[in-house]
Each structure stands twice: as C-alpha cells, then as structure tokens.
Amino acid sequence: MGTFSYFPHTEEDISSMLERIGVSSLDDLYSDVPPEFIHKADYDLPDAMSEQEVRDFFASLDKKDIKLKVFAGAGAYDHYTPAVVPYLTSRSEFSTAYTPYQAEISQGTLRYIFEYQTMMCRLTGMDVSNASLYDGPTAAAEAMKMSLACTKKKTRVLVSETLLPNVLKTIRTYAKFHEVELGAIPAEDGQTSLGALKAELAKGDVAGVVVPAVNRYGIIEDLTGFAEAVHEEKGIVIEYCDPSALAVVKTPGEWGFDIAVGDGQSLGIPLNFGGPYVGFMTCRSEYVRKMPGRIVGETVDGEGRRCYCLTLQAREQHIRREKATSNICSNESLMALYVTIYMAVMGPEGLREVNNLSYGGAHYLHDELLKTGKFEEVFTRPFLKEFVLKPLIPAEKLQSKLLDAGIFGALQTEEGYVSFAVTEKRSKADIDELVKAVKEA
Amino acid sequence: MRYYDKLIFELSRKGRTAFTLPRNPYGAASLPDKLSRKSSLDLPEVSEVDVVRHYTNLSQMNFGVDTGFYPLGSCTMKYNPKINEEVASMPGFMALHPLQPASTVQGALEVIWNLGKSLAEITGMSRFTFGPCAGAHGELTGLMIMRQYHMKRGDLARTKVIVPDSAHGTNPASAAVCGLQVVVVKSNERGLVDVEDLKPLLGPDVAGIMMTNPNTLGLFEREIKEIAALVHGCGGLLYYDGANMNPLLGIVRPGDMGFDIMHLNLHKTFSTPHGGGGPGSGPVGVRKGLEAYLPVPKVVRKEDGSFDVVRDDEDSAGEVSGFLGNFGIILRAYAYVLMLGKQNLRRAGQLATLNANYIKESLKDAYKLPIPSVCKHEFVFDGLIDNGERKDAQGNVIRQGARTLDVAKRLLDFGFHAPTIYFPLLFHEALMIEPTETESKETIDAFIDVMHKIAKEAEEDPAKLSGAPHSTPISRPDETRAAREPKLKYE
C-alpha cells in the first residue's frame, strides 16, 4: 500500500516504532481483541478518491440541488452574512481548537465567548448567558428542564401552541423521556392566550411556561401580564425569541421574563440546510447555577493581568456526572463566534436596519399578495418579517408555481395556511417577481 | 502567541460602522409602542478594520491542531483536512433552506444518505440518523431509542441503565436527562468492566448498558461477548459510546460485538474540526430491527432511487433537534470518508494505535503506568513515578515533587497542548494521552523528549513546574476567584 496524505508514517517509521513497543506487526497491536471480532471481509465502501475527484464529486452533488430565492422562515432565516464573518471565523486557530480547557493557550476562544455572553445579555436584556447550546429547539428543551430545577415541588411545564413546530416537537421529545408533564396553552387569534395560561397556573403545579416573542405565524406577541401571572404562582417564565428581532422588539428582560432561549441562526448564519446553527440561553443571575452548558468568567492571572477561564463548572457533566444540570459537553462554539463577529459588524444601527428592511419587505409582500385575490387574511395582529395567509387556491399548486419561478415560498403550515418570510436579502424586485408568479398561479 | 488585552466593546466609538446594507425603499418598521424595544442596544460600534484586527489578535492567543500537537485524551484531535472545509463552503449547499421540498434538495439528501450508509458499513449497524448535534446529544438520542424500544414492547419497568465507573461523564448525565437511573459497574484490576460485579446488577429493571470499547483507559473490553450475552439475556440493550471508535476503524465493528445502538463523533473519528468546543455531530446508528425508533425527520431512499424526508413516524422516538442535523459537519465527514476510501480506513485505526503504544512504551520509565497492557488509541498514566518526590534514606520526603496539573502546564511552554488530566476518575493523577494517527514519528519523539525533560525538572527544579507555564500569553488564571466572584459579562 502506498502512503496517504493524512498519515505521515513511512514504513521505516512503523518498523522502528513497532520495535520500541516490542511487537512485530501492526496486527499484533490488536492481540487483545478476540479474533472473532476482527473484521476480515472487505468493507463495502467507496474507493479512495484524489482531492480533485472529491471536489468534483461534491460539485456534481451540489448541482442536483435547485437554487432558489428563499421566502420561507419557520426557524431558519436567510439573512445576509457580511464577508468578514466567515473569513475570520475560519481562522484555524479558532476552528481547529478544542474546548478551552487550557486557558493559558485558549484566550482567543475564551475572550470571544465572554464577548458573546455580553452581547447576548444585552440583546435579550438578561443578566447572564452561557457559551451556547446546540440549536434553538434544544435550548428550549433545556430551559424546560431548567425551570423544574429552579422550582422545587412543581411538576408541570406549559408550552404555548404558537411556538414554532420544531420547537414544540423537540420539547415534547425531551419531556416524554425526562418524564415531565406538559400542558399546552392554546392560541387566541394567533397569540398565546393569557386567560388560558392563568387557568392552568391556578392548578398550582406549574414549574415553567414557554412562550414565543415572535411566534409561528410571525406575530409579535403581546406578553403584557405574562411574567406577573407566572411569578404569582412561583413559576419560571421562558421566552423563545428570534435574537435578530430583539433589536426592535420588546426584550424578554423588558417583559420581566426569567429565561430567554432561541436560535442564533438569524444573526447572520447561512441556512446551511439546517445546521450548524447555535442555541442560546440567557437568564436572571439568581438562576445561573441551574444553567446548562459552559460559562466563561473573567479573572486575573498570576501577574494580575485580566484573563478568562471556564467557570462555575460544578454544574457540568465532567464534574457532576448524573447530577449535572445537563449532559451537554460539545456546544456550538464556532457558531457563537460567528454571531459575535456578526453583531460586532452590524452594531446597533445595522441590526435595527436589518429589521427595518425585513419588516418593510414582508409588509409590502403581504399587501401585494392580498391584492392578487388569491389569499385571505388570517390574523390582523402586528408581525415582523414572517406572516401567514389562507390560500384560496391549492397550496401545492401555489408552491409549485413559485418553484417554477425559482422561488421557495408559501410554506404550508399544519393549520392549512401558507407562510412567507422576507429578509433584507430579498429586494423589492424579488418580491415583485414572487407576486407575479402568484398572479399566474 | 502574545498577550492582547482588548475586548471588542473597548474599541467602540459612537458613529462608527462596519456594515453596509441595501437602500431602504420602505422606511422604518412601525411596531406598536408597547411591543417595541425601549432599552438601548449597546452593541459595539466599530469599523470593519477594527473587527478584522481584533479577532485576528484574539486568534493569535489560541492553540489549535493546525498550531501543533494536541494529545488530548478521548478527544481525538486528528488533523482536519482542508478539502473538508472547501466542500462545506460550497455556496449551493450553504444556501439551502432546511424545509425545501425534497425534490429541490436531492444532492444534499444524497450526501446524508450516502454518509449514513458508509457509517453503517464501518460500524456494522443498520441505519444512522444525523439529528444529534454532538456526542452527548447522540448518547441522549440513543438512550431515547432504547427506552422507546422497551416502551413500545410494553416493558415499562426498565428504568435503570448500567454505566462503568470509567465512563465519560456525559454517559451518566445523558442517562439522567433521559429519565433513567444510573447504576455503576466497577472496573477490575485490569481496568476492564468487572463481569462478576455486573451480574448481580442485571434484571428485569435494566434498560441497558452504556459502554465504550476501547474504554477510557484505552483498553479493549475483551469480555464484551460475555457482557453482551448477559445484558441481552436480561432483556437489556447495549449502547456503544463511539467517542473511542478511532482505533477500531477498518478493524472491529461495534455491531459485530453485540452493540444495538451507538453514536459516532464526526468531530473526532471523522476529522471535522472541533471549533473551540463545537459544532460537532453525533449521528446515532441502530442494528437491524430498531430502525423504526430512530428520530424524525429521517432521510429515506425511494424505490425509484430518489430521496425523501419522512417527518412523522409512529414508532419514532421523536424530534431531537430543529432540522436534519449539522449538515455542514456531515459534508466534511463525507469528504473524509471519500478521501480515505476502503483502502486507507484500516490504516487510520492501526496508526492511531501504533502512536499511542509507542508513547506509552517510551515514557513508562518516567510516568506511572497503572495497567501495563497493550492499549488502543489512548492510555492513562497516573502522574509521575513517585510524583517526582525525593526521599531520604528513611523514606521521608525531602523535596515535594510535581502533580499532573504541573506537568500539563509545563507542556504548554514547549509548544504542546496538554493531555486530558484528572480523568478518568479511577486514578488520582490521571494523564490521558491520545496522539491520533496524523502525528509523525518526529512530532511524537519531540513530545516524548519534552515529557522526559519535564520528569527530570520535577526532580531537579520542581518550581519550574509549579510556576508553569512561563511562555504563554497569560500564566495560570485564578479560577477560584472566577468562581467566587463570577464576572460573566463586560460592564
């Protein structure tokens, strides 16, 4: 066998190393494995390719995907990524490092996580942030568990039915196996019902309540009275939010909530067919010791210089094992860097303008679509960049007509509506194109 | 590496911007007052060049696999090939929305399907799912599948899961998140699961056992056949923690050893970068007969050869993450599988094992080797022999030696990352070394020389160790202060 580019060993290296070990062949290193478990047959795998062949192969696969202008959201938003973000994030000092266990040679990672934590606190109006979780839906599931840990003797968690479908489903999976009783808060005219929430709270067993800030219909929920109602019953109130939207939408901190979770994807992370994204969690300081995931803190080194390290680790699995606040170990650190650099680039003005453009485009599209006569309005509540309409022609026909025009939109919802999302990446001309295709449908 | 003392917030000047956006034809968003953000949004206001210099400076205080040798035990810090990065950044893949109709994402679905097939072949499993975003997430998903299997059979009494005392910390933590009670099985004096200790733990309340093989001491659990028979005999399933799969690549398949469910860490065994803690990917595989319990959404191949996504399935454990998993990581891992091909797979496992045994044999004269048998991809020293202490003729310690922490910190001065320390918990001074197959003999020899030098320093000049590191951007951080007076954001 010839050499392979990722393996530096020459045949001489191998023989001299075997000699030091005191065995005569590589196979001898497996003498502790019962022979019946040594796989003797050929593996049914592809033949090794050259790098050029690999590149061409993936390019050919990529060609099979149809490139579309995305007018869909449902938890994944096509916002613009400034060039410096992937450029800096791909520096291998960041990307090829492990979790920053050795703080002395990991100040780069530790410092950006500290910046990330600060930015997420400022965006959500909360006191503390962890270093990231997998994605929004799993962050919501972690928050559900956390609410039980923060409230002794309470057993039930309420989830709003206006949460995104994949958030609800992930929470349900975690709840089923973690043996958490879930209750649903129904929607009333496209918004979580405060009356229904109060009725459930009155039963006295509610540990946590999860509601969205901007919900599955794109509606900005009016959460007046929610925190007060939940706190009166000594529960924890959790907001699921789109962090990009928080530049303009009232924050979980301002609503008086205890925990904020969501997906950082809307902060400039490409759609990537669903991942990697980044889950975030921020909370009030009194709950920090119940928080899942890594946390970075500031301290000083031996010479008194400002520096950073992983802290409050007594919460974590490598110390506490089955008593840990969560099983999470690897998180989405590099994607946290991605959104940190994104927020540094955009700043407060940029992030607000992203919302202005998305809001403006979405409302323009909404009004133009209604004018076609092929939709009925479902809700009249305020929305941000995503909305649903009731189609008066079959949704499949609508979607396929859009696909013919190179557009992905009119995502069908469980309720029989179709949803559209608009970001700053979609120009007015793009929107006109969509409307034109709808008119022809 | 040099010390750089800025946070991005300290570069901020009101009125500076680093963004450009299209002209706004619509005007500002007009949200109802009561739904609008009132508090100021205090994000940095910096120029583009500020951003670039700042994060470049930060990166220069970091050590990655591209910087140097990273023998972090149980983390498999192998080289991250650059073609992987190129493939994952192909603009077409990056622009796909996860809910696009299957007919428009046939290429992406083919990637997921093909990688699943290759992983199934490599591990002896039947089907893989890619929903889990990391190893611990894979463990949790695997345990959910285990419980779902028992529940669907109406076998509701199985509430316990057996975990060896040498297991990764995520194993018991994942079990707890999955609503299972953890029962610990001891290791014997050979560092392997004690079969006699296991037997009385088995019964109708056992959902299964979680094992990694080789275990965290790098030792092959050679009694796995008997263990599998015992656990299956009591109606339980075997879960394989794939964090230690690397030395078995192309040589041994977990499915053949009797494991029913397993995860792989694509960010370990399949060469994708660790990203300073993530993103990873923890695909879960199951043996024949358990496929129905895999999470949704699942990628399927239809009779006509095209691919589809199944979003609901009655027997499925449910959804474990937002979409189809970390697709960007899946692309990288698949590129790695294609580069290796069937021709190089076995060599990866063998060389990982060769490198580990070579270091073990070369350093056991200076470091305490508690279990002197052939290892697989990694092994554990229990600190320095005699901790580098010097004793007088009566056996009194006349000079304190050095602890594992000191050895680890001193290594940083020589341009090496430290091994994993104080894990596994079976030894007080554990020093867990995993070199991987991508390190050359020269690199490893240099590491061995430095480890010998440090052992000598421990005897002759222990202060050099206790004060280490001396040449890094910062010296040891005051961790006690960080925890006692938590400062978790910039103010």
What does this protein look like?
The complex is a heterodimer of chains A (441) and B (491). Chain A has 441 residues and is of the alpha/beta class. In chain A, 38% of the residues lie in helices and 15% in strands. Chain A has helices at residues 11-21, 51-64, 84-89, 92-95, 107-124, 136-150, 165-178, 194-201, 226-232, 252-255, 317-320, 333-371, 395-404, 428-440, and strands at 69-70, 128-129, 156-160, 181-185, 187-188, 191-192, 206-212, 236-241, 259-263, 279-283, 296-300, 306-310, 375-377, 386-391, 407-408, 411-412, 418-421. In chain A, the strands form 5 sheets. Chain A has a 7-stranded mixed sheet with strand order 2-10-9-8-7-3-4, sandwiched between helices. In chain A, strands 13-14-17-16 form a 4-stranded antiparallel sheet, covered by helices on one side. Chain A has a two-stranded parallel ribbon with strand order 1-15. In chain A, 60% of the residues are buried. Chain B has a domain at 82-339: Aspartate Aminotransferase, domain 2. Chain B has 13 helices and 14 strands. Chain B has helices at residues 48-59, 82-88, 91-94, 106-123, 135-152, 170-177, 195-198, 224-233, 327-363, 404-413, 441-460, 462-466, 479-484, and strands at residues 127-129, 160-164, 181-185, 206-211, 237-242, 261-264, 284-286, 298-301, 307-310, 379-382, 390-391, 397-399, 420-421, 430-433. In chain B, the strands form 4 sheets. In chain B, strands 1-7-6-5-4-2-3 form a 7-stranded mixed sheet, sandwiched between helices. In chain B, strands 10-14-13 form a 3-stranded antiparallel sheet, covered by helices on one side. In chain B, helix 9 (327-363) crosses helix 11 (441-460). The interface between A and B is large, with 208 and 196 residues.
